[in-house]
């Protein structure tokens, strides 16, 4: 900077343009120049595919080469397909349990980790967060071994603790596939949401607690009257992102169930259904129809969540 | 007195519970590390680490000599580093423009970006594949890197952090004769260091762990990145758990390393958008 100062000050000063400095014509183009690489790529690979998928959803395709107009056929077939019903049901079950387990768990951990009296907080935070460094694929490979019957660590541990049979087949028994997926993803993601809650808790105005204590509020009352309202925006954010993330579940079951949907399609998710139909069999039009169904479902549910949580706020006031 | 003692007991109990929970969370990771140091015979014989005389690196040796793991690793390093650099440049540049300039169409751009953030990425996979097929980018790294070269999330991150840079600083530079690009490169980027750290880690994790899109776009095994390569190995060497665990650990280590380096920035970057919300 000092270099520039030394070499070029006179030129600008001579143009005499007041304190804010009039911009030269090239400066006016600068912002356009700066956003243009992004805009071009975003238009071609972001916006265009969204628009194109609206069209593609109404075509029968066999790979990118052959495309025939199909009207609403894709959607009709989709809604009639029992596999799709299974995929939607599994995804909803997974999303429900993810939200119900992860959010209270993450909030509880965050509240405790925010207490000054707790020893080893830095270590504990790192410990709870550490699984997030693993991608779903690596977690999938790891847990398919941990959940193995007879030898797997999970069965060994549960056998020693509560006497669960050693041959519990987590990934081969349709009834146990979903619990296995839900618990694996709880292990994986609870620390991520915990970080959000921790940041929110640290931003809560301390004076509010003092005021509440003077009013004689106990810990529970303080939690309801001060903590919850203060962290509400972050709680809504965590709720919506956890739900959206759950709806996109693919890698974890796909890898854990050995590139399949598992016994009786117990691990089939909407995105896995999309992948299998669109890219294994090459029906890109059908995949677009599934994609739009997923997108609209996700949008409706996240809007509903935001509305509901907004309504709670109105009630609180 | 009595209540104080019960508070103390409660705190001790909660502390112990927290450490127990942490132990449960860490157990799979400790087991993973231990598994990579055992021979295949010992794999399920010892719960965690075997006696020192039984420790071996043979599984790593097998992984590199009996499988194309080194190839997958190199591919991933290449694809990920290019992706991170390109994303960093485009996102920070666009974020700067959106944070510090008033120009026509700005609000429309931001609105469209926000709208696409709400749509799941899987929506565009089929049309994107179709587009890349016609651009002859299927089964190439271009097809992997180019569509992912811009990150809307990254632009929002940079926009948010660059808004905090005082306008006076930029004005002073302008008066000193800095070009607009110099302002970005010499002033905004250096002061954005923490956000650059956060972004690099987030972007690295995204590219490194990416599975679905590489699985769709890459057909030839020589091009495979680590996640799809490892998944390939799982189906070939289903019973060679030691090898697979070694591959899993090696796939995780680069992220751990970066995280240790950038930990503080990472948390600040993650929560920059959410807490104010």
Automatic annotation (TrEMBL), chain A:
Q: Which residues form a coiled coil?
A: none
**SUPFAM superfamilies documented for this protein:** MetI-like
State the annotated membrane topology for this chain.
Answer: Multi-pass membrane protein
Record key words, sorted: Cell membrane, Membrane, Transmembrane, Transmembrane helix, Transport
UniProt entry tagged with the keyword Transmembrane helix: yes
> InterPro entries annotated for this entry?
ABC_transporter_permease, MetI-like, MetI-like_sf
Keyword Coiled coil attributed: no
PROSITE patterns registered for this protein in UniProt: ABC_TM1
Q: For this UniProt entry, which segments traverse the membrane? A: 29-51, 87-113, 133-154, 174-199, 231-250, 284-304
Gene Ontology terms: cellular component: plasma membrane
Q: Where in the cell is it found?
A: Cell membrane
What superkingdom heads the lineage? Bacteria
* A GO biological-process term: transmembrane transport
PANTHER family cross-referenced by the UniProt entry:
ABC TRANSPORTER PERMEASE PROTEIN, DIACETYLCHITOBIOSE UPTAKE SYSTEM PERMEASE PROTEIN NGCF
Family affiliation: Belongs to the binding-protein-dependent transport system permease family.
Record-given protein name: L-arabinose transport system permease protein AraP
From TrEMBL, chain B:
Domain of life the protein comes from: Bacteria
Q: What are the alphabetically sorted keywords of the record?
A: Cell membrane, Membrane, Transmembrane, Transmembrane helix, Transport
Transmembrane portions of the chain: 12-34, 72-96, 108-129, 141-158, 196-221, 241-262
Coiled-coil portions: none
Q: Kindly give the membrane topology term recorded for this protein.
A: Multi-pass membrane protein
Key word Iron present: no
- Provide the family line: Belongs to the binding-protein-dependent transport system permease family.
Protein name as catalogued: Sugar ABC transporter permease
Gene symbol?
lacG
């Amino acid at each position: 900077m000092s270099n520039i100062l030394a070499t070029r000050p006179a030129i600008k000063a001579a143009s005499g343009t007041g304190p804010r400095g009039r911009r030269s014509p090239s400066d006016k183009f600068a912002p356009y120049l700066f956003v243009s690489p992004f805009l071009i790529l975003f238009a071609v690979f972001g916006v265009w595919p969204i628009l194109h998928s609206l069209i593609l959803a109404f075509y029968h395709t066999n790979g990118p080469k052959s495309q025939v107009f199909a009207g609403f056929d894709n959607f009709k077939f989709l809604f009639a397909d029992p596999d799709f019903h299974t995929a939607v049901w599994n995804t909803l079950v997974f999303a429900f349990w993810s939200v119900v387990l992860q959010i209270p768990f993450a909030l509880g951990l965050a509240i405790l980790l925010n207490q000054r009296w707790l020893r080893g907080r830095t270590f504990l935070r790192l410990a709870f967060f550490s699984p997030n460094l693993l991608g779903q694929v690596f977690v999938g490979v790891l847990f398919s071994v941990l959940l193995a019957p007879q030898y797997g660590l999970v069965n060994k541990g549960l056998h020693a603790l509560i006497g669960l049979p050693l041959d519990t087949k987590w990934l081969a028994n349709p009834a146990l596939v979903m619990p296995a997926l839900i618990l694996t993803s709880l292990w994986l993601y609870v620390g991520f949401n915990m970080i959000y809650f921790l940041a929110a808790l640290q931003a809560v105005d301390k004076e509010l607690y003092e005021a509440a204590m003077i009013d004689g509020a106990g810990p529970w009352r303080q939690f309801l009257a001060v903590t919850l309202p203060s962290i509400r925006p972050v709680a809504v954010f965590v709720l919506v992102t956890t739900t959206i993330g759950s709806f996109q579940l693919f890698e974890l079951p796909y890898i854990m169930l050995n590139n399949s949907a598992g016994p009786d399609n117990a691990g089939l998710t909407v995105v896995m259904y999309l992948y299998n139909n669109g890219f294994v069999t090459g029906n890109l039009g059908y995949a677009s129809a599934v994609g739009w169904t997923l997108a609209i479902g996700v949008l409706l549910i996240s809007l509903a969540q935001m509305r509901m949580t907004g309504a709670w706020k109105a009630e609180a006031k | 007195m009595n209540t104080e003692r019960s508070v103390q007991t409660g705190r001790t109990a909660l502390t112990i519970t927290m450490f127990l929970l942490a132990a449960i969370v860490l157990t799979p990771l400790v087991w993973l590390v231990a598994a990579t140091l055992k021979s295949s015979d010992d794999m399920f014989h010892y719960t965690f680490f075997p006696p020192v005389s039984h420790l071996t690196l043979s599984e790593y040796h097998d992984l590199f000599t009996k499988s194309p793991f080194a190839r997958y690793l190199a591919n991933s390093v290449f694809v990920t580093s290019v992706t991170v650099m390109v994303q960093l440049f485009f996102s920070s540049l666009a974020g700067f423009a959106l944070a510090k300039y008033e120009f026509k169409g700005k609000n429309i751009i931001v609105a469209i970006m926000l709208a696409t953030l709400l749509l799941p990425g899987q929506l565009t996979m089929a049309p994107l594949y179709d587009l890349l097929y016609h651009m002859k980018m299927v089964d190439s790294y271009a097809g992997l890197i180019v569509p992912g070269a811009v990150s809307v999330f990254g632009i929002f991150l940079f926009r948010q952090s660059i808004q905090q840079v005082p306008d006076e600083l930029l004005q002073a530079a302008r008066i000193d004769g800095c070009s607009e690009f110099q302002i970005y490169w010499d002033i905004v980027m250096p002061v954005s260091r923490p956000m650059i750290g956060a972004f690099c880690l987030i972007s690295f994790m995204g590219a490194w762990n990416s599975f679905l899109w590489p699985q769709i776009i890459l057909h030839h095994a020589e091009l495979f990145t680590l996640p799809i390569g490892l998944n390939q190995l799982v189906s070939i060497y289903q019973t060679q758990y030691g090898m697979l665990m070694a591959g899993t650990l090696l796939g995780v280590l680069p992220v751990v390393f970066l995280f240790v380096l950038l930990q503080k920035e990472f948390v600040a970057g993650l929560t920059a958008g959410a807490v104010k919300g």
